[in-house]
Amino acid sequence: MSRQGSTARSGALRVVHDWRDALVAVAAGLVAMAVTAALGLWAAGAAQLPDGAFPRVVAAVVVMAAGGTVELFGNAGALADTDAELAAMPLSVTLAGALAIGICFLRPLRHRAVAGTGELLGRVARTTVLWLAALAAVTALARQHFPIVTDTPADLIGELLDATPTVGFGADLGPTLLFGLLWVLGVLLAALLVSRRAPLPSRLLHWQQPVRPAAFAMLLLLLAYVVIGLVAGLVVAATRGHPDRTFAVLLLGLPNIAWLALGVGIGGSWEGKVEEPFGLPLPQVLDSVLRGQRNSTVDVRSLAAYDERAWWLVPIAAGLVLAAAFVMAVRSPAGVRLWRHAMHGGIAFALTMLAICPVTRVHARYGLSLLGIGDIEEFGGEVVLKPHLWTIVALALLWGLVAGLLGGLLASRVRRRGEVDADGREPGGTGMRTAEVPGAGRPGNGVTPRRRPGPRSTGRTG
């Protein structure tokens, strides 16, 4: 009985620890998103919103960052009609939450070589359940009404006719939980893919050799663009004035701009416009291209028409994509053929752009019509930005193929674990030869190194 009691107590303690780990991951992600959103909105001036709306706006931004849906609705009295729409994803907030959840989810597994399928699914399920519960609570908070002041003739007319426009927002629980589920599952899957040491079930170990190096290289590429954008933003904030506007961009939409620069650098393009009175806290050159009543194309040429430094996006993209391909090849097992490096690079880069380009899309619109006179957009504005997705994906596939081939060639000059010299020695080894099995000698890959067989002993002493 004592042994059974000890086993039951140990099992209960393990369950408590597993739920604690899931709670830590969810809490870290939620706090990271809320703090980033609050700082960004404060820099954008949202702290001055009336009726104590700031915490609710922060909650709405967190919902949007997790893939949720926030609906806008307007009211301008009996003599007026309003129409509003918002579809955008603040990727700075998204990235902060994803990194926090991914790191905390992997931390308890860092000393493991192999994990069972049931254990991993259990950890994913617990984290997902707690995340959806937290997201539901945030969704309930994300609801508010407040007046809109646009400094247009509509304000004066609205005051005279008691039709001052107000706008409200509210998170839609059903779609928010659905997209929030897909978001957190995607974050956890990405964490397992990019981590070199995260344990996998034994059945999946052979998939880590082609997948993990490419996934890690693509994450490194995306983060490199974010870091470069951060440095550039800090320089702009320090030298060109309006630091509040710049910090609003950095804390809310830095990856939106940085990853757009990646797509533009490889030859892709976006289409959009920015109308008065609304606008986004965009870099000046991008705002100049988009500002107007008609759709404009955002590519290297259109950006360079306002600032010739935009041409630097092409060599920067070439250098960083090649660097990512080199990292991928170096982290791959020795002996991988060049055509496989090219294939892995092309597929990985194309899938990466297929994933990030849709989330850079922005659509915001607000309109007001008084006494039924004129178009509802007469006293409104619109912001639109959408990618030419399949063109960008095709270009990413081509760039990835070329970069993967060149990266494999460069990596062939770099010594890697598992490679064998002509005399049978590993670099820095003692004469023991590791079998020429892809990934042999790497920790946590499920492949055990074996030694070259020596002379067989006969058991005789001579």
Describe the protein's topology.
Layout: H1 2-43, H2 54-65, E1 69-75, E2 80-87, H3 91-106, H4 117-141, E3 143-147, H5 153-160, E4 166-172, H6 173-194, H7 205-239, H8 243-265, E5 270-274, H9 284-290, E6 296-298, H10 300-304, H11 313-331, H12 338-356, E7 362-370, E8 381-387, H13 389-411
Antiparallel strand pairs: 1-4, 2-7, 3-4, 5-6, 5-8, 7-8
Terminal residue distance: 59 Å
Identify the overall geometry. Answer: flat
What Rg is obtained from the alpha carbons, in whole angstroms? Answer: 27 Å
* SSE pattern, N- to C-terminal: HHEEHHEHEHHHEHEHHHEEH
Number of helices: 13
Can you summarize the main beta sheet? 5 strands, antiparallel
Cross-sheet strand order for the largest sheet: 2-7-8-5-6
Mean pLDDT metric:
81
Strand content: 5-15%
Helix-residue proportion: 55-70%
User: How many DSSP E strands?
Assistant: 8
Regions with little confidence, pLDDT below 50 for 5+ residues: 369-379, 420-462
Structural class: alpha+beta
